[in-house]
Batch of 3 targets.
Target 1
Amino acid sequence: MHQAASPAEPTGSSPGPAHQERAYDFVECPMRASAGGNKTPDDIDPTNMMPPPNQIPAPDQPFPLSVTREESKIPRAGTDKNWVYPSEQMFWNAMLKKGWRWKDDDLAPDDMTNIIRIHNQNNEQAWYEILKWEALHAKECPCGPALVRFGGKAKEFSPRARIRSMMGYELPFDRHDWIINRCGKEVRYVIDYYDGGEVNKENYQFTILDVRPAFDSLGAVWDRMKVTWWRWSS
């Protein structure tokens, strides 16, 4: 979910991020996660801009958190598996690593559960929107796309978001760039996240997403022109 990269390697050639390689251990057996799993170097994973998986409770953590991880519906490029979402404990530890301190907020255990559900729903919704765009390429890629990597760019507003802001609309509260593999071709998508108001308690959806292919190629420009025309002429 960053700048366009070189063509994707053949399926199976990439080892993938460490936290995804062992993720299925904790989808089926959360008790194994409580031991912290395999130790990995303390650095940022370039595929998702997250630190290595850490299932160990923080020293001053006020309450226990789940270490169970949920499997997504998003195919992971280079494998026959899907991406797996972080556990509540992993999410907590990642926020601490980025400078957040729980004492600044009045959090309860249920809050972390809801945060994870909202996080997962946002990603499923984003992938659903990407699949709509990728339907334009169903003939050239009948097997469908897979997600290669992604990353947040909350402080780097897209040109589209800046133009909307100048027209009086609110700026997005977050931005992600997702890189997908379209049968051997890497394609970058830009996702702007806007506040949609109250959280839907049935599906934990509250975010309005603006998902579109980045202007990295003439093909992407043509796709966006076609969709714009269809929207205005329908």
Target 2
Amino acid sequence: MLHEYQVIGRRLPSEQEPTPKLFRMRIFAPNEVVAKSRYWYFLSKLHKAKRANGEIVSVNEIFEPKPLVVKNYGIWLRYDSRSGTHNMYKEYRETSRAAAVEACYQDMAARHRARFSSVQIIRVATVKASEVRRPYITQLLQPNLKFPLPHRVQRPAKKADRALIIAQRPATFY
């Protein structure tokens, strides 16, 4: 299960820079240790800073404000495939940002064989129903959406009530 963390860090104070600039990132990781590690990984790519000459000021877990409401999420990501690096935009219907990112990692592993280390989440945003782009999400946005349950065989409540041989076939349609 992935969690969303806010990690704030900076370079170590020096004589040239007594109050270094703080850098904040929202990281999706299974625990705080991995979140700190991913923070330094991304910070070393974005700025000239590394763990040896830096410090983490705070690590906070970010919780979903409405975890029982289903929302549409758009995820911008970048991943390394066998042939090169690709940018991508994907949409998911989930109850939280962390669940949407976890679904994204599973989806990338299934469709593109991309491992966790080769996928970089750039941005996660809530998308309004009118702004959804992907057809596999728009089909779920109909107001009178129904999921029929075809071919249902009625079973007896207890095993003792079950007849071994029945004269007619079961009616499995309604």
Target 3
Amino acid sequence: MYTLWNHERLHAWGDTLEEAFEQCVMAMFGYMTDTETVEPVDTVEVEAEGHDMLSLLFHFLDEWLYKFSANEFFIPREVKVLYIDRMQFKIRSIGWGEEFSLPKHPQGTEVKAITYSAMQICEDEKPEVFVIIDI
């Protein structure tokens, strides 16, 4: 699950850290369009690396944002984290969705960048992440 908070803060959580990361990606894309309008007709894989868990989350979101901002204009309906390597700080994921199309997908707010500002990964009870995005 996720919430969009204060118009630029993402808060996502799940039963596992993988689910929290998945929901954070979906929260980011929730700013850009109504993801319920997206059909899972294409598949895209995203891998990222970091030097710690926060940089891994940053690069993970940044790679997904790149898939939308670059030539592909890919927007997912669903994202699944296949694994997180907490020792080497690597992540691999897959997303099902399609190319963004204005006639089909309502235009939301453009996400310009991911930031490290106030970024948090909490695993006390249920894993949750907090990320501020630049819109």
